[in-house]
Amino acid sequence: MHESMNDDRELVAAMLAGDERAFTTFFETYFPRVYRFALPRMNRNADATKDVVQATLIKAMRAVGDWRGEAALFTWLCQVCRRQIADHVRSERRHASKVVLIDDSEEVRAALEFIAAPSTDDPLHGADRAELGRLVHAVLDRLPGRYGDALEWKYVEGRSVEEIGERLGIGQTAAQSLLARARVAFREGVEAVFGASADDVLAGLEA
Questions:
Q1: Which of 60, 91, 180, 185, by CA, is between 20 and 30 Å from 26?
Q2: Same structural domain, 116 and 52
Q3: In 10 A of CB 97, how many CB atoms?
């Protein structure tokens, strides 16, 4: 342990001196250790854990002069990581509370159910529906892959947020967040493809 503390001091001294190799050594040495510390505290969400650990190490590198050497560098990093995890959880909760309010977006539901519904017997109306359906599909095709899939699963197939999270290999909260971003991207895509406000277009689909 004593030798490790000396190694820590030498590493930090080199970082404070601006030695680029020291920063690389710091990152490569402590990323896996802090990752193992953070993963169970992040409900084993690998992607979110990587983000939190990277943010932890970046923050630590900027504030490395604050480490006084009373405890091992890893112990200090764990303290930084705990704060980063707390920030992440607070952010997710704030976002989740907003997601709940818009979880069932009627406009998006109408648009996606529109392309899944059969045409009427009226050939002219059917042609209009087919054309609008192609345009709505074009919007979905323009979205990042998982956004289009998640929207179709939610609004066309009626899958739950939990099921969508399982399909994507992410947690329920992450799936809610992804759906929220997908709905925003979908509305922006509608405006780009139709050249009109999303509210006008989506309201027209319900008519």
A1: 91
A2: no
A3: 9
